[in-house]
Specification:
Length: 393
């Protein structure tokens, strides 16, 4: 080991360059995987927040065998479908969603959350912490009231309570009845699409003033003692009374996660491609430096062989040097990555997740990279003829 370290120090410049190459690859692995895991945890947490006892009926046919969400466009779902589902055994509540679009204004301030026209059942199915005020109920049918998500509330009422205040939604005046509080989701990069950054208005009110309002989602709360998959055939049968098979899909929490993981899988493939390029550059750097080292150390190799060193010992020394360069590069990359991750977590809403498995993978790749690209130089050094080495010198 002493001879290996001494050799690396004597070739400090080339050793450092190789380390930097491996460090770049290690940084790519650790940062991209950690950010990906953080995003996955964030999205998974938001889907889990819906609850395992919730099923979602979406318009159109969703192919879970491939990434084809098909969650938008014209909806054929109706109020009658909700009534039919409510009669099924094992179903506790059914809520209806209609996405209204647009924005919300209060004075000169405005915000652009997701505006959802919903039935009051949703608040019973998905009770959130109220910062203040109250949800609208069946008693408020047809009334211009709304419930703000905490993000929208902070944007248009930064210094005052919004309860009882008028707001304008798509040109119509509504009165704020409640504000939902959820600090955890507010720090999410996906909070703009979550159930926190939402303004809820009564679906009955929208129907009262608009001629045609489509139902974009049916949300079904089931008895928590019943397995969701067991109820799906009955739900499908009830919906087929008025709909074609291609006009709806029933999704469980597991199905939603699969759609998310399909997207993350595509991103993961891109990550592998990017890190492979960085790793290949680092590995080629190690191999180039070690081949140069073999050429510069022919006398040393000749002397060692002349005094009895075997081919195996020469091979092991050069391979160990390559692996050590890989290890040093990984450590350098790890230190840089941890600093960058801390900066990202502190200054942005993205929260990279560093796991022991990711660290182990990074170390394994770095050492393996050094060993793999060190085989050729080590083999070349081991095969040198001692007489020729000394003669050349």
């Amino acid at each position: 080991m002493r001879a290996i370290l001494q050799s690396l120090l004597e070739n400090a410049r080339s050793t450092l360059l190789s380390m930097v190459g491996v460090a770049v690859g290690s940084i790519a692995i650790l940062l991209l995987i950690s950010i990906g895991l953080g995003v996955q945890k964030d999205i998974t947490g938001q889907i889990d927040d819906l609850g395992a006892d919730l099923l979602i009926v979406v318009p159109g046919k969703v192919d879970l065998g491939s990434f084809n969400p098909n969650l938008g466009g014209k909806s054929f779902l109706s109020d009658q479908n909700a009534k039919d589902l409510q009669q099924l055994p094992g179903i506790t509540r059914v809520a209806q969603f209609s996405f209204a679009g647009g924005g919300i204004q209060a004075g000169e301030l405005d915000a652009y959350p997701v505006i959802v026209a919903s039935t009051p059942e949703w608040f019973q199915m998905h009770p959130s912490t109220l910062k203040e005020g109250a949800y609208f109920t069946a008693k408020d049918d047809g009334q211009r009231v709304c419930v703000l998500g905490s993000i929208a509330a902070d944007q248009i009422f930064p210094d005052t309570s919004p309860i009882g205040k008028p707001v304008t939604i798509n040109g119509e005046t509504y009165t704020v009845s409640g504000v939902i509080q959820d600090k955890n989701a507010e720090s999410s990069p996906f909070s703009a699409f979550s159930l926190v950054n939402v303004v809820y208005i009564p679906l009955s009110t929208v129907r009262k003033y608009e001629e045609s309002v489509q139902v974009d989602r049916l949300l079904i709360q089931i008895d928590n003692t019943v397995e969701p998959k067991v109820l799906i055939p009955n739900i499908n049968q009830a919906l087929l009374k008025t709909l074609e098979d291609t006009q709806f899909s029933v999704l469980t929490q597991e199905d939603l996660l699969k759609l998310v993981f399909d997207v993350l899988g595509i991103l993961g493939t891109l990550v592998v491609g990017l890190t492979s390029i960085a790793l290949a550059v680092g590995g080629l750097g190690i191999m180039t430096v070690m081949l140069m080292s073999v050429g510069e150390r022919t006398k040393e190799i000749g002397v060692r062989k002349a005094v009895g060193a075997s081919r195996k010992q020469i091979f092991n020394q050069f391979l160990a040097e390559s692996a050590l360069i890989g290890l040093a590069g990984v450590i350098l990359g790890l230190l840089v990555s941890l600093v960058v991750i801390q900066i990202i977590a502190t200054t942005t809403s993205i929260k990279p997740l560093v796991t022991p498995a990711t660290l182990a993978l990074t170390f394994a790749v770095g050492i393996g990279l050094g060993s793999l690209f060190g085989i050729l130089p080590a083999t070349k050094a081991a095969r040198l003829d001692p007489v020729e080495c000394l003669r050349n010198e």
